[in-house]
Here is the input.
Amino acid sequence: MIVIFLRLLLAHILADFIFQSNKMVSEKQDKKVASKRLYLHILFHILCYYLLLWDLQWWYVPLVIGLSHYVIDLGKLYFQNLKNARLLFFMDQTLHLIILCGASLLISGADLLPITLSPHLLLIIVAVVFLTQPVSVIIKTLISVYRPKTELEEEDSLQNAGKYIGILERLLVFVFIASSHWEGVGFLIAAKSIFRFSDLTQAKDRKLTEYILIGTLLSFGLAIIVGLIFLYLLPRL
Here is the structure.
């Protein structure tokens, strides 16, 4: 069941976070049921599930998951507002994961056609891909209510530099934990603190300092959690 769930989870991560652009999200929010990008998004999901399951015996499973995703997303689009956006995001993702768990239980024990990915490699790919764009979206959503009005001057930094720095630091934390080199995590935290110290002292804004600190701790914390889950699941595959 774990391997099947990992296949479905990878398909969900790819379709919901990697292949879904900001334009798709904006159009879905504006046009809702009339949005063409909403149906393109669902099509991406169904195709990803077919590619990762790779078995026509269960041809209806990707269609059922895709339909459930459409219903959940549509409900979120019509009920979402500025006050409940964070709550609905996590409710939305929780419902999708419940559907994937149910599908995994349904298929569990079946002889699926093998794919070229070994279970261990599949687990690594899921962990690595999750630590990129999906975790960035999760952190952004979690701290959206704390976003300060004053920020560091954007012209003094590279475009999307903070996003890619966060992704790289999470991947490094994961590598350190997966290879049982916890001292590397401490070194990385110290290096990040020194790097950020000058920016925070120049900002002279306590809210901005706290905002950056929360984001950094969330980034490291989620990477550590993913690393621990990886170590737990690896010998069980």
